[in-house]
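Office hours follow-up: a student asked to see two folded examples consecutively, so here they are.
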Amino acid sequence: MFSSNLQVMLLAGTDTSSITLEWAMSNLLNHPEILKKAKNELDTHIRQNCLVDEPDLSKLSYLQSIVYETLRLHPAAPMLAPHLSSEYCTIGEYNVPQNTIFLVNAWAIHRDPKLWSDPTHFKPERFEKESEASKLLSFGLGRRACPGANLAQRTVSLTLALLIQCFEWKRTSKEEIDMTEGKGVTMPKKFPLEAMCQVCQSPTINGIF
């Protein structure tokens, strides 16, 4: 039982994190001005000759906004895990009978124009308002929310920060990255990301590679 639970946690954490990183990099490559702004933030807040580390994440508000916006537009689990009502209850205007299977379409909610301005566009700046992040459903809400939410956000944020700090990124052509969504329980890209990168020319990075 323990090994099966561990396997579920490992698979759920690695697949969703890698998918989120792929969506984040795809969006950044399609919006080089946002990528440049994220890199400038890293250069400003990370000491020279140092790689970004987990304690630095609290200083990188724009990077965190990029992660939030990626989770909004491309939730790794667009249909949250199903829930079952243990007893009769009322949710908003709906009366829910006992033993009803309840599905939440996070993808649709995250693109609802009643909740978000310009909902289909990648705009990390929207999360400069602290209240905006509380509207995200990527990890669920309440007692049944994903227990690995904090770990996932920090892991994705740190990995993305290192990719931006250590490498210069470009698209393989002048055409924008295709953002068509694939099929699955998680939401992969239909066409895997292909990009060009080279090691940044800085004393910190050159000393590592």
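And the second, which I mentioned at the end of office hours:
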Amino acid sequence: MTPASCTSVALIGAPVDAGSHRPGCLMGPAALRVAGLMEALQRLGHEVGDEGDLARPAPASADAGDGRMRNLAEVTAWTALLSGRVWQVLRSGRFPLILGGDHSLSTGSVHGAARHCAETGRELFVLWLDAHGDYNTPDTSPSGNLHGMTLAALCGEPGLQPLFHGLPPARLPPGNVCVFGARSIDAGERRLLRQRSVEVVDMRRLDEEGVSAPLRRFLDQVRQRRGLLHVSLDVDFLDPSLAPGVGTTVPGGATFREAHLVMEMLHESSLVGSLDVVELNPFLDERGKSALLLVDLVSSLFGRTVMDRRTPVVRGT
């Protein structure tokens, strides 16, 4: 079930801010709804069911985490809850669209997609649209915030296994990940990203090659291996002049047209099976500017175009 063909989308609110150092992301799902996300998708012909916000789960244990993994118990509980929900939605043939919430929520959503892929005999690939690598570990993280360790946890880095307590194994191969739009990576995670052969398309490469060439190469890899693609869209992928409603702004991000081109290419690929929209902090936004832009981008991923494309599109199987 992909945005190019799907008729049933499940909106899942994940008001998570335990993975971040700055409160406010828990208001993200409400802001996206107020900005008209559901109505925008319905106008494109999709059947959209809003499942509301997931209730904050009880912490997985009394352990709140040491300084190296802040709020570990709460993030672990969110991971289990989101993994189960995304897995259920995918099994039902619907498209899970998770409204966040800080980026630690993707530990659960991607795990749920990986469980589904393991059951259906497909490979999971992840496109990480983000200014950051999110590949820190407890040993490399300068802050201990788990939203900066999400990809490392999903790819099985040591020290992060407690996040998946009680869940079935569903590891994401590092070679199946593409971090796209990066421009702020810590020294320790840079070493790990290189050692694990995670593809990182930083802003230097986008300046030199443009958006379409590196993205097309990654999508071709997913298609050739009959994979399913999870997209994780962090607000800070965008330049902060366009989307200021995020707690980790980094200058020099994707432009309006670059971001829309990414989404249009993803739609045309018919490979996307699940989507996160994360790190929206309405408290830091300017009159809903970031939320409205995110709704526009998601609409492009689900098929909104200015004109119909006349070139043939290769459909995923």
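Two things to take away from it. Strands lie at 8-14, 47-53, 95-100, 124-129, 177-182, 199-202, 228-234, 272-278. Residues 10 and 205 are 35 Å apart (CA to CA).
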